[in-house]
Amino acid sequence: MTTASRYADFAGREARGVSPTYERLAAAISADEEILALLETVPAPKRQPTLLLAVVRLLGGPVDEPAAFHDFTVANWPAVAAELRTRATQTNETGRCALLLPVLATLPQPLALLEVGAAAGLGLYPDRYSYRFTHRDGDVELGSGGPVLDCALTGAAPPTRVPEVTWRAGLDLRPLDVTDPADLAWLEALIWPEHHHRRDRLRAAAAIATADPPALHRGDLVDDLPRLAALAPAGATLVVFHTSVLYQVPAERRALFVDLVRQLPGHWISVEGADVVPHQGTPPAPDGPLHNVLALDGTPLAWTRGHGQAMTWFA
Question: Which of 141, 143, 167, 296 could cross-link 112 (Cys pair, CB 3.0–4.6 Å)?
Answer without folding.
Answer: 167
